[in-house]
Predict the 3D structure of the following.
Amino acid sequence: MSEYIIETDLINRYFPVAGGEDFHALKDISIQVPALALSILRGRSGSGKTTLMNILGALDKPTSGKILFDGKEITRLSERQRDKLRRKKIGFIFQSVSLIPNMTAYENVEFSLRLANYKGNKKERVTECLKLVGLGTRMHHMPHELSGGEQQRVAIARAIAHKPMVIFADEPTAELDTNTALSVMKIFKELVATEKLTIVMTTHDTMLMDAADYIFHIEDGEIVDE
């Protein structure tokens, strides 16, 4: 693995607007995301940070520019190739945890392994991941029996279960109180070390910045500070 897990070169993203000029959401974004670190994309709502994350995570394509993921260009991959990349090497955590309500915490994580066609011991890996996020004694509880912070920890366990290279977390603490948000950041830091992965998250919460190894500040679709 190189020093940088993701590199972008002059990424632009335009969105069509009915009856007007296309909206220029991202403007010549060139960044290098360090491997085995926690990086934050910081910006106000509407700044372009989620659009950038979606492109970095192969959920969207740039209008122009180039992206390298683990040294390989992914800009021109087919949709099938992009789907394989996401299933094998990327994990996602969203503001809305989106757990399957009629499955236990264990079953939610195990289901993600089945989707990823995980070849290892599923029972062992699910148990390991739930213990990593502090839910070893809560793994057989249903989502409605868990607090908001516990549900987010299940989502984290689900995202790391298939052993991805990169986790993308979009505003993962937005609906949590300050203490719970800080505990999630602590888990992220521990996972970078124990699971040897890279985490890229978006947030506008200035209280969380001290936890980051690197910060990319985005305003109006442009990187203004690193």
